[in-house]
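Good morning,

Attaching, inline, the backbone tokens for the sequence recovery test we're adding to the shared suite. The designed sequence is right after.
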């Protein structure tokens, strides 16, 4: 039955190791328990454009940072609009969507190499098609995030990665400040236990389901 009620879009954001994917899973468990129809997904996607991005990220393919930024834009538009699993269609059908990263990830990560203004312009089509009901930023200290990453990896270039996480976190905060009048953003302290963070994520989104 089509009640005409749209789904909501929750975009989870954070630096690598912040606990975003864990929170996406815990939120989806909660929504399942409550019988809320939902779809969980992530960017970069597993589409052909997404796999090109992964090839660049793993060094198997070379591309200028501006090209990478444009690939993320293309991957995102496909994520929204593709006929099979497009997010825009799901929201229209009344299915709520949990996104593990959306355009704020581009603002935070690509702005290391590309001007933030350009990135905001380049993502304007995505934000006009689908702006998150709320962006939930899991704000985890870069040292804590690094510890979590190191535990799960064989080898990593520690200093380089830590500095990058510090920079990316700063870029997130700058982007939130810059777009504060257009975007709903909830910042949650990600340094605490998974359960405590999950409860705060739920508190941040629960109200939107009954609006
Ligand atoms: P992200 O998706 O942000 O990169 P993950 O959710 O994959 O982060 O978490 C990275 C690692 O940290 C995983 O091993 C996960 O089990 C662990 N982790 C996630 N949240 C917490 C937390 N609140 N406290 C301790 N460890 C956590
Ligand atoms: P992934 O392996 O999914 O990591 P995570 O679990 O931390 O999300 O890889 C995603 C990587 O892609 C992550 O390092 C951030 C980066 N990224 C961008 O640089 N720009 C973007 O627009 C998006 C969506 C992701």
């Amino acid at each position: 039955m089509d009640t005409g009620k749209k789904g909501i879009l929750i975009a989870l954001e954070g630096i690598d190791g912040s606990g975003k994917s864990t929170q996406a899973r815990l939120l989806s468990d909660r929504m399942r328990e409550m019988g809320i129809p939902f779809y969980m997904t992530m960017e970069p996607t597993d589409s052909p454009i997404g796999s090109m991005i992964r090839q660049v990220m793993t060094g198997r393919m070379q591309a200028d940072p501006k090209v990478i930024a444009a690939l993320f834009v293309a991957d995102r538009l496909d994520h929204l609009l593709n006929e099979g699993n497009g997010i825009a269609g799901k929201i229209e059908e009344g299915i709520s969507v949990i996104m593990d990263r959306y355009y704020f990830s581009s603002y935070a990560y690509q702005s290391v190499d590309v001007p933030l203004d350009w990135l905001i312009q380049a993502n304007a089509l995505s934000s006009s098609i689908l702006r998150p009901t709320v962006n939930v930023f899991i704000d985890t200290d870069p040292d804590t995030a690094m510890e979590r990453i190191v535990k799960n990896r064989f080898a990593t270039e520690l200093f380089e990665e830590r500095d990058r996480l510090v920079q990316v976190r700063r870029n997130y905060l700058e982007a939130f400040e810059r777009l504060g009048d257009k975007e709903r953003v909830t910042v949650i302290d990600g340094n605490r236990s998974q359960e405590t963070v999950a409860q705060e994520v739920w508190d941040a989104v629960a109200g939107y389901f009954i609006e």
